[in-house]
Amino acid sequence: MAGLRRQLGVAPVWKMAISITDLKKIVVQIPDTHLGTRDRALLLLDFSGTFRRSELVALNVEDCRMIHEGMTIHLKRSKTDQEGQGRSVGIPHGQDPATCTVQACWAWLRAAKIETGPLFRGVNRHGQVLAKRLSSEAVAIVVKRYVSWLGYDVEDFAGHSLRAGLATAAAAAGKTERAIMQQTGHRSLTTVRRYIHDGNIFRDDTADGLGL
């Protein structure tokens, strides 16, 4: 087994994280169709809330509440909360209206005339909003659709690229492990520290500023 590990390597296969810069480039290009309005809200909410795909598509309108600071999202159950105790995630107002998660979500609800039930739903080829809840697999499809606009290899990205993107950006901004884990719902420091390493890889680079 040790020989196989040396031959094949033991490094985990990590998908690329979507940066804030790339996310902004994507969302400002998305057209204001029903499909585009839904996808803009989905991408921004998934990034800001660092939700797992299953958590994102399980959300109902009733789980979202507008407050002065922005919006709160109540998760009834998650991968690390099998007993269904639930937790709430805060989504602050964005600095730029064009990329504000809160505005994007309410724009989707108004455009789709959704008042209750599933937050994210399918949109058919005629632009009609369906009653059926979006699937977890659809989240990955949406992510890959838009990263291709930037010329990236879509195989390097997955549904959790947005989740990883926020955690990486937060680490780069100096946020604590505790704060990142509170937002992502992670219970494993190992996983979170992988994001923190990626976020700090240039900020803490010992070769930086040495005149090379």
Task: Summarize it.
With about 210 residues, the protein is an alpha+beta fold. Helices cover about 45% and strands about 10% of the residues.
Describe what this molecule looks like in 3D.
The protein is α+β, with helices and mostly antiparallel strands. It has one domain (13-200): hpI Integrase, Chain A (Orthogonal Bundle). 44% of the residues lie in helices and 11% in strands. The chain has nine helices and five strands. Strands 1-2-3 form a three-stranded antiparallel sheet, covered by helices on one side. The protein has a two-stranded antiparallel sheet with strand order 4-5. The protein is globular, with a radius of gyration of 18 Å. The N and C termini lie far apart (41 Å). The model is unreliable at 205-212 (pLDDT under 50).
Key traits:
9 helices, disordered C terminus, 44% helix, two-stranded antiparallel sheet, 5 strands, hpI Integrase, Chain A, 212 residues, 11% strand
Number of strands: 5
Percent range for β-strand residues: 5-15%
Enumerate the spans where pLDDT stays under 50 for 5 or more consecutive residues: 205-212
Helical run tally: 9
Q: Termini distance?
A: 41 Å
Q: How would a crystallographer describe the biggest sheet?
A: 3 strands, antiparallel
CATH level 3 topology: hpI Integrase, Chain A
Shape: globular
Strand order in the sheet with the most strands: 1-2-3
Structural class: alpha+beta
Q: What layout of secondary structure does this protein have?
A:
Elements: H1 2-8, H2 20-27, H3 34-49, H4 53-58, E1 64-67, E2 70-75, E3 87-92, H5 101-112, E4 121-123, E5 129-133, H6 136-147, H7 161-172, H8 177-184, H9 189-200
Antiparallel strand pairs: 1-2, 2-3, 4-5
Helix pairs in contact: 3-5, 3-7, 7-9
